[in-house]
Write a structure and sequence with these properties.
Elements (H helix, E strand, L loop, with lengths): L1 E6 L2 E4 L4 E9 L6 E7 L6 E6 L3 E3 L7 E6 L4 E6 L8 E8 L6 E3 L3 E6 L1
Parallel strand pairs: 2-11
Antiparallel strand pairs: 1-3, 3-8, 4-5, 4-9, 5-6, 7-8, 9-10, 9-11
């Protein structure tokens, strides 16, 4: 089992930055991929960054968001720059084992970008 806890969300003005963190505990060595998702009100959850052997970003965040990880701290990050009001959403950390046999989600952290 893996437990994920996100932090770092908040209220920021357009053009500002936030860094989200996702701290993992448990059988972290079993994790083969990490993703960041977001879900805006009334919309489906969408992936914004997917990291396995490489990292892929949604077109809407490419060039503004950066995924990183600190293996020593069992923590992954999402650095979000040049934030826009349309980035407002609950952001979720997601991780999975080989072939997605086990998938884990954090509780989410709210990001609100004011115009």
């Amino acid at each position: 089992q893996v437990h994920l806890v996100e932090s770092g969300g908040g209220l920021v003005q357009a053009g500002g930055s936030l860094r989200l963190s996702c701290a993992a505990s448990g059988s972290v060595s079993s994790i083969k991929y990490w993703n960041w998702y977001r879900q805006a009100p009334g919309k489906q959850r969408e992936v914004v960054a997917a990291s396995g052997s490489s990292t892929v970003y949604a077109d809407s965040v490419k060039g503004r968001f950066t995924f990183s990880r600190d293996n020593a701290k069992n923590t992954v990050y999402l650095q979000m720059n040049s934030l826009k009001p349309e980035d407002t959403a609950v952001y979720y950390c997601n991780a999975g084992t080989l072939y997605g046999i086990s998938v884990y989600w954090g509780q989410g952290t709210q990001v609100t970008v004011s115009s």
